Amino acid sequence: MWVDSSAQQRKFIDGSIKVAAEADFKALTAIWLRAYKNVLNIGLSTAVCFLSFPKESEGLQVKLPLVTLFDFMWGNLERCHQFDDGTRQIMKLAYQEALVYNVCSNLLELQKDAGLLSWNQAGEIGFTFACHLANKLEIKIIWDPFNEYTIASAPNITQATLAIKTKLRLGIQIEDEQIQVECLNIDEAEFMTTITGQGRRYSIQCDGQ
Fold first, then answer.
1. Which residues contact 53 (CB under 8 A, 6 or more apart)?
2. Of 19, 74, 146, 190, which is least packed with CB atoms within 10 Å of its CB?
3. What is the pTM of this model?
4. Cα distance between residue 9 and residue 82, in whole Å
5. For the range 88-95, what are the long-range contacts, defined as Cβ-Cβ under 8 Å and sequence gap of 24 or more?
């Protein structure tokens, strides 16, 4: 599935993400903390740091809503990046749009500049909002998702050829069972022949893997 406008591209990546207003999110965080304090039977005036500090620092290491949202946003971007079914290409367009819109050259610059935006401004573009959350949590994401020199950016057929040359072992799912196979060759239809340790052969499609 391909879409034309930049707005549609962004919606394809971020379509399931509805960013709440910052005031609503703060209210949710307050309710979240109150619920934890009630469950743990501690005073409502207890400092938030006691809940959020790591256990080795004598805290309870409670996962707050902001961290949950951060995990969801970056997890969604990572999943989009992993699959070569068109989603990755559209994600690349969304990433380039975020860089151009914020006049940045890489993800680190985007994280820095996203921290200067308001919650609602950052929420207009998924990549920018993810970087805004990282900035609020003082987390630095070191990632160059579309570096042309990485294996992930190489064409499928190139990756498949490399897998054969290096005798790479893959884990594939056959009838709800994960099995280990070795890559043997590629046929004219660009299907890769693999073999298990017991000599059973399977063909898997190179494209989209």
1. 59, 60, 61
2. 190
3. 0.66
4. 17
5. 90/2, 90/3, 90/9, 90/12, 90/13, 91/13, 91/145, 92/145, 92/146, 93/6, 93/9, 94/9, 94/10, 94/13, 94/14, 94/125, 94/126, 94/127, 95/127, 95/145, 95/146
Q: Which helix (H) or strand (E) is 178 found in, with range?
A: strand 177-186
Confidence of residue 188 (pLDDT cuts 50, 70, 90): low
Give the Cα separation of 61 and 25 in Å (integer).
20
The helix/strand/coil state of 41 is: coil
Residue 58 predicted with pLDDT over 80:
no
Whether the per-residue pLDDT at 6 is higher than 60: the answer is no
58 residue type, one letter: E
pLDDT at 69 over 80: yes
At 92-149, the pLDDT tens digits run 888 999 999 999 999 999 999 999 999 988 988 888 999 999 999 999 999 998 887 7
Cα–Cα distance list, 41 to 38, 45, 60, 180, 189 (Å): 5, 12, 13, 50, 64
